[in-house]
Specification:
Layout: E1 3-8, H1 13-29, E2 33-40, H2 45-49, E3 53-59, H3 61-64, H4 71-85, E4 91-94, H5 99-105, E5 111-115, E6 131-133, H6 141-153, H7 166-169, E7 177-181, H8 193-205, E8 209-212, H9 217-226, E9 233-235, H10 241-249, E10 253-257, H11 260-267, E11 272-276, E12 292-296, H12 304-315
Helix pairs in contact: 1-6, 1-11, 8-12
Length: 317
């Protein structure tokens, strides 16, 4: 008999990447585990990458909340409830601890685990769990998720994080290009144009072409303006997450703002430099088997010199 496990963690991109080592741990230490995962439909590719995930169950909470009482939203939620009502899990593990994840948890059948009052980002969420776990808040996100899983399933994990992304990296030849993620949803996360140009110049001197990522049309236009005078640069067209992962896996280096795609690059083991200015790397540092540098902090972006130094260091390895 397998141990049927439901993981509840629906978003966002970077947070889902940080989840992957905990899934590897569960698969290692609970050898009969059958793991299903509830996730936002726009991110369902991420859990599907992990070989230990049995079924990905998509939801569309982001879409529903825009028109919660519309007929389409009500029908979609009812369909999800009916699907959950037909299943029984040995463990339902909420690894998000938000009231929106509690809506999912309440549709499930099984012993419900999650963070306790002092550990949850939204403490009210802890009231809905059968078993509550204490995980100190000011730890890196990857560590917190691994600890929560280990407390739930009564094991002590060892070793470096395994993101389970070997499908992208095994047998792949590295190509002479750098991936750049210069855009963000908030302007306070942006890095000065002149500093980006210094980074591009350094990468160009090292014989690398530049591939820029953008999440929407506005970001794409900004990225095109940023590299308008670089003959070795291109702004990549919009692609699905699997396509982005394939591009990142072949890159010589990745330099990006604190974004989910920058964290994905680190998880793929590529040399990755993250530029933080509106968030703190204390909670969400870059984690991966390759060279990583999480530079800056909330309100204190890294200097150009520090970033260039880390680029030089990463390319010398």
């Amino acid at each position: 008999m397998s141990t049927k496990i439901l993981i509840v963690r629906s978003s966002s991109l970077g947070d889902l990447v940080h989840m992957l080592p905990a899934i590897s741990d569960i698969a290692k230490y609970v050898p009969d585990a059958q793991i299903d995962w509830v996730v936002e439909e726009v991110f369902q590719e991420i859990p599907s990458w992990h070989p230990a995930v049995h079924e990905v169950i998509p939801i569309a909470h982001r879409k529903w909340r825009k028109s919660w009482w519309s007929q389409a939203s009500r029908q979609a939620r009812q369909a999800f409830k009916e699907k959950m009502n037909q299943r029984h899990y040995d463990v339902v593990l909420d690894m998000q601890a938000l009231m929106k994840s509690i809506w999912v948890v309440r549709q499930t059948h099984g012993k419900r685990h999650g963070l306790d009052w002092k550990s949850a980002r939204e403490p009210l969420a802890s009231l809905f769990y059968d078993v509550k776990h204490r995980v100190e808040f000011w730890q890196p996100a990857v560590t917190r998720q691994r600890l929560l899983a280990s407390l739930t399933f009564h094991y002590t994990y060892e070793g470096e994080p395994d993101f389970g992304l070997q499908r992208f990296t095994e047998g792949v030849e590295i190509e002479p290009y750098a991936v750049i993620m210069p855009s963000a949803s908030r302007d306070d996360k942006l890095y000065p144009e002149k500093d980006w140009h210094a980074i591009f110049d350094k990468l160009t001197e090292k014989g690398l072409s530049l591939k820029l990522l953008a999440g929407n049309e506005r970001e794409s236009e900004r990225a095109k303006a940023l590299v308008a005078h670089y003959d070795n640069a291109e702004v990549l067209p919009r692609m699905n997450l699997t396509g982005v992962a394939q591009v990142l896996a072949k890159s010589r280096i990745m330099v990006g703002l604190d974004s989910g795609l920058t964290h994905l690059s680190a998880a793929l083991g590529r040399p990755t430099i993250g530029i933080y200015s509106a968030s703190t790397p204390v909670r969400t540092p870059l984690v991966g088997a390759g060279f990583t540098a999480s530079l800056g902090d909330r309100g204190v972006p890294p200097s150009r010199e520090i970033v260039l130094n880390k680029v030089e260091q990463a390319l010398s390895l």
